[in-house]
Structures are given as structure tokens and as C-alpha cells.
Give the backbone structure.
Amino acid sequence: MRIPHISCLFLIALSISSAQSARVLTRGEIKQIILNKPYNLSPHIPPPIWSGRALLVVIVNETREPVLNVIGSDGRPEEVRFSMPDWLRLTVVSLWGGDDGEIVAAGTGTTGKNEPGSFIVRIGADRTKRTYIPVENLSINVMTVGPSGVIWAIGSGKDKETDTIRTILARLSPTGKVLTSTMLSLPVWDASPSQMRASADRVAWLTSRNDYFEFATDGTTMTHLRGPQAPAGGNMYDRIMAISAANTVLISATVYGQAGKRPAVNFWMFDRVKQSWSLSESAVDPFPPGTSVYGFDGDALITSGFERQLGDLLVRYTLSETK
């Protein structure tokens, strides 16, 4: 995981065509944190996510007992370990946190019978209550918890009618009962690595090939378009998506390769009127290299940060509009 650097205060102007005004992200609270880094740089380490009023980080993965860090409002980490009874190896691909402190982890693994499988684990706020949910016919690539506590997961599984491997969107009850299982007309590699996030009334998915989807609570597709594109001559890396409860969508990425320009962190906002992405520009200083979106805390955006004197930071932004 890359270490971001933030050096000074700045504003980010965001265009919203429907209001004919600029949407501004104003840097507010800076919280010093103790951010433990993953012990390896495996591509199976999911990006840190701000969810449920805490930063969730996988620091040990692809093991019998994955280790998570949960960094709350006090900035100090809580180490959380878990295992699946009779499973030999687990790889966490997604995390979600509830406002009550619950953690939900999902991924793939190897059972005691040396067979591949997928799992969901619910870890209560007291860390003693554990609910283990094996998931059949779905190799989970990404997961989130959406409205009404429904668990959403996308991965690959067998289409029993054609005996082929397809991309599947599954919706499960909080206890793991399959509510719907939908075959998607997308290549199986679109789901890995990818990101799912939920708002108050929908679930967003950014695929590995930079397609953006929004699903209604019944699983039907509401929105589908290409994600933001790199400026001419550039290439995008490390795309991270966040969606607020009120459906503000931001995607951050690092752009390399523009002639005569250093690598730069760009932010895009989804314009729902135009059904397109608006590139944000810094009003004062550009985002330092490595800056990344973690998620929304209510209406505030949480990003990564680093200062030499303080170390790792959580940086909070408030959204406002200006003419």
C-alpha cells in the first residue's frame, strides 16, 4: 500500500452543471492515526475503506487467520483476527463496517477437505459474536452490505443450464440466505479486482475494466456507463471509488505518462444530469502523490494523508457549493 503525502491546506473545486455552481471540498479536520501496513503487497489485499465510522485495513491475508486493523475516531488501531472453522486458508477480498461497530468480511479460501470455497464472516461490535456463512457456487471477488442489511456479492460461478462459468451478482439476507442470484453479461475478470459501495438506496460497483454500475435494491441495473478516463496521453492507476448516503460519487486515481507532467492525483465526481464525470481541479495546491479516497462519513469525505511531523493521517473534507 502506497504512503500518501499531504503538505498544506487546499480546496478542490467540483463542477455541478445542474446548479450552475462549483461544488467545493474544503479540508477540515486532520486526525493523526497509527496505520499498520500490510505484511505483503499481494494484489489480493483490498484497499483500505472508511465504513461504519472507522477505517478498515487488511494487514495479514492469504492465511488461516487473517488480521484486520480497525481505526476509529481516536486514531488508534484495534487488531481483529478471525478464522473459519475447519477452513485451511482464507483470502479477504472485501470489508464493510456498520455504524454499530460490526465488521463484515468476505473472500475465498480452502476448506478442510482441500476444496475451494467462499465465505462471509460477521464480527459483532464486541468481537466475540461471530457468524460464519459459507457461500456456495460463488467465488466472491467483491462484497458490500447495502440497504436493509442485505449482503451484495459479485464473483464467478457455474451456470447450471449451460455448465459454463459466468459472472454472478448475488444478494443474501443478513443470515446468508440467498435472495437472488443473477447472471451478468460481463466477463468474469470484470469482478477482480473491483469495488462495491452502498448508499442509502442503491449499490455502486466499479469494475476492473472501469465500468460503473448502480443497482436498485432489487438488483436491477439503474446506471451503467464508463468510469472517468485519463487525460490525453495519460494512464490511470489505483482507482478508488466512494459513494455517500445521499449518492455523491467520487473516484480518485493517479495519472501517469502525460508529456512534461509529473504523476498527479485526480478526482472525478459523477454528474447525474449529464451522466458523465467531471474532473476536479485544486483551487490552491494539487493533491500530493498517493492521496486516495477512503470513503464518506455522512456527508464528509475521508481521504488518506501523511505529514513528516505527524505521520499517517485521516483528512476530512466538507462539501459545500459556491457561485
Remarks:
- The domain at 11-322 is CATH 2.120.10.30 (Neuraminidase).
- The chain has no helices and 26 strands.
